Amino acid sequence: MDFATLAAQLNAGTIVPEGIVIVTILLVIVGDLIVGRSVSARWTPYLAIGGLLLAVLALYQRWDSTSPISFFGEFNADNLSVVFRGIIALSAAGTILMSIRYVEQSGTSLAEFLTILLTAVLGGMFLAGSDELVSVYVSLETLSISSYLLTGYTKRDPRSNEAALKYLLIGASSSAIFLYGASLLYGLSGGETRLSAISAGIATAGLDQSIGLVIALVFAIAGIAFKIAAVPFHQWTPDVYEGSPTPVVAFLSVGSKAAGFALAIRLLVTAFPLVTEQWQFVMTALAILSMVLGNVVALAQTSMKRLLAYSSIGQAGFIMIGLVIGTDAGYASMVFYLMIYLFMNLGAFTCIILFTLRTGTDQISEYSGLYQKDPLLTLALSICLLSLGGIPPLAGFFGKLYLFWAGWQAGAYPLVLLGLVTSVISIYYYIRVVKMMVVKEPQEMSDSVKNYPAIRWDLQGMRPLQVGLVMTLVATTIAGILSNPLFTLANNSVTQTPMLQAAQKPAVQVSKDETVRLPIAL
Amino acid sequence: MVSTQFPWLTTIILLPLVASLFIPLIPDKQGKTVRWYSLGVALTDLALIAYTVWNHYDFQNSGFQLVERYAWVPQLGINWSLAIDGISMPLVVLTGLVTTLSVLAAWRVDQKPRLFHFLMLMMYSAQIGVFCAQDMIQFFLMWEIELVPVYILIAIWGGPKRLYAATKFILYTAIGSIFILVAALAMAFSGDHITFDMQELGLKEYSLGFELCVYGALLIAYGVKLPIFPFHTWLPDAHGEASAPVSMVLAGVLLKMGGYALIRMNMEMLPHAHVYFAPVLAILGIVNIVYGALASFAQRNLKRRMAYSSISHMGFVLLGIASFTDLGMSGAVLQMVSHGLIAAALFFLAGVTYDRTHTLDLDEMGGLAKKMPSVFALFTIGSMASLALPGMSGFVGELAVFLGFTTSEAYNPAFKAVVILLSAVGLIVTPMYLLSMLREMFYGQEGNAVVGVSLLDAKPREFFIAACLLIPIIGIGLYPKLITQTYDVKTVQIAAHVRNAVPVVAHQHLENLPRFSFATPVFQQNELLGLVK
Predict the structure, then answer these.
(1) What DSSP element (H or E) covers B303?
(2) Is the pTM of this model over 0.80?
(3) Residue A453 is part of which domain span?
(4) What are the chain A neighbours of B72 within 8 Å (beta carbons)?
(5) Structural domain includes residue B92
(6) What pLDDT is recorded for position A283?
(7) What CA–CA distance (Å, rounded) separates B86 from B258?
(8) Of A193, A313, B367, B530, whose Cβ has the fewest other Cβ atoms within 10 Å?
(9) What is the mean pLDDT of chain A?
């Protein structure tokens, strides 16, 4: 059998984007080996970005593919996966833009960093399309292990080591739990591994009300909730965010989280339709806890990275509203919010990195009076934070509006009201930072800002940072007002995905019942 | 409904916003060019408003005019939809005038001038957007856009307690505006089709319980802004701490957003609930008038005294809204316009005084009349207008509200007598605190802040700003038809609209009707409880 027929049989064309990423990884490693570390640092990041953008282009061409199932059901390249893979690849591209100077200054090798990051992207992209338990687990582990390596990348920094160890321990146990849940599913369904076949298998075996299925569900949710950092599986987040290199945190909070949400939608909708009520109930509880705890604890933070860690927990809670209501609009609003979140969160992290590079600190109090010294950074950080807080007319407002719109449409009134109240709480801590930067008088400047170095963009690695900053700033500002293309994209990705359409009818019914039971959950 | 003519309203709204984006690019070190630029933009926009209203607005038409509608986010049913009618047109003109004058009043802002003018222009756009928006989500968006600029304007250029005041302002308003969004979503999803268009929402049929809930939610949101007792506590802080140009806009325009929205949404869209809530509004109006006046009397800080006087004056708007009569409605709108002019003038003059004496404490002032005769004269005219001296706009507005309320057939005579009597108390206290303010500032012994300081009298620029506000005040006072004829077809229509709802409600709850006419809060609660059951 020659290669072409094999490829045709496997329908390998669906994973060309991932193939491009793999080739990029190889080129980066080999290039680094041949030309040496100092020389390769000049071009490998751009090669990696180019590769990622090429992958996004390839994804664009695979939009609306007529035969999305490939590798005998291992991988499903439907439109939903295309959107999520695009988000993950773009988040990595943004991360690379901001990491060049950062890694350079930390004195470690850039090419190795890129290799691990791209491997994480690869895992995330495969995870977004995996339609079978084994490939889900393998890609999940690819993503996780690369993430552990990334968090410990600045190996001379004890905090980075601490973060990596914590992340590794909690991550390893959560993937073990997830694996156990997967094995339960395998057993209950009579040896099925394809997600779509599992529920049928369980139903045939007459186990649709068994306690084993519920346990499998709980274990699977534990694995997912760890990835998206939903309360109460969030404990690693603040420490890991604080200790890890900041670009890594940016990727974890956007790319890795998007992959987690992709897994959540696919696994819960396809493998657990028999217990839809139960998983929506559990996810509702997680959403409520995440929104409340994330946003309330963020009020008390003094470190910028910890603030964003808790804010990202709260944001995950908002996104879960779209998941639990289980309507077309709900899923579409999730996708839309993740796209918006990509820009605004990456923008915020770019600003933090820039500030840390120039002053060496990320204490919120050190930002005071920054407006006098660096207006561009102040503007960009203010816009990104206000957008995260949902202030119109920025992109985040439209994201939240869509989530709440969908929630209200599905009748999840308590969730929407809670979301609104916690949004107002979040405005308070976001605007506290803005106030720190903008409002302080010259004499109230912090020491770091007083000794602020002259702004130079011509240092190596600063140009890409500037490009990233301006691009995320522009996107965050106008993606809301001109949100029509993104809305269309998000809606199409949901309405043209057969898996979600098949699950649609019962899901709507259940979400109506869900709201009736909500007060008990509260 | 897409208009074929030039999109005037869109241009008016977007011009300051787009122009503000170029402020960072202006080559300017001292902030001199920025203020000219900003003033130029503000004047251009004011000229555009004047031109549009004069040439393209029909004063005898009670419907929406200059309608524009473009699909914005069709997936959610959100449109970019603008129009003006008799309620919004006077307020748009007022916004243009007051904001332009406040840009001129901010001539001496030398601290971060770029940021200041950037925010002022942004606020300009958002304010007009609020008055023109015909889509609930667009309205909410404009309402929120104005929040952050005001927050920063208070927090940077304010008085000593500015951070506290700014935070209080943003928290009150942000929490209040949640209710707008919730009400918008609730109304949009009720019934058979999803829409955020205000006119279509007004035509939908709601159940009475639902209408009352939405009305209550919106009342909280707009009650914070107007402000209505007990949601008013942010106002004395915010107005007291803000710098003069910002206070002008706060008192002159932002409060009217609350009154405008009450008329536009609560009355026009929810007339049945309005029948139930009107007595509550009347009582809250009296509380505002009397409480605001008494609290104002107790203030020793000049701007806080004016801030409480604003609360007192906004009570008349509530009374007018609650009156169910043509005259009362007309009075409510007139009172909004007139208070916008008077409050802007008084806050501006307070700023002028503060620039010279560097204190707002009434105990420190005194004997200023000799040193600053023209400021004294202007201040006196402003105060007289505020205490409703006949011949000034304040008098016409309050008189119309009183007459409207007295002639209202919706209330029984006892209730009307009590309302009028109590608000007359407010009317008596108003001259007391305003005249005593004048006395403490301008007459008598020279205060600590004045002794031995040479104080300049009003400069031509300051004189010009005050005159621009005071001339319309006197003009309206002498010939009120000047303004009322531009909008009264609309107010008559709204009053008829809510009056029509009275028999409907009465028909639905026939046995409650006799009790309704007594209209006390106690009975209101029973009424509501009965409905919930």
Answers:
(1) helix B302-321
(2) yes
(3) 3-512
(4) 484
(5) no
(6) 92
(7) 16
(8) B530
(9) 88
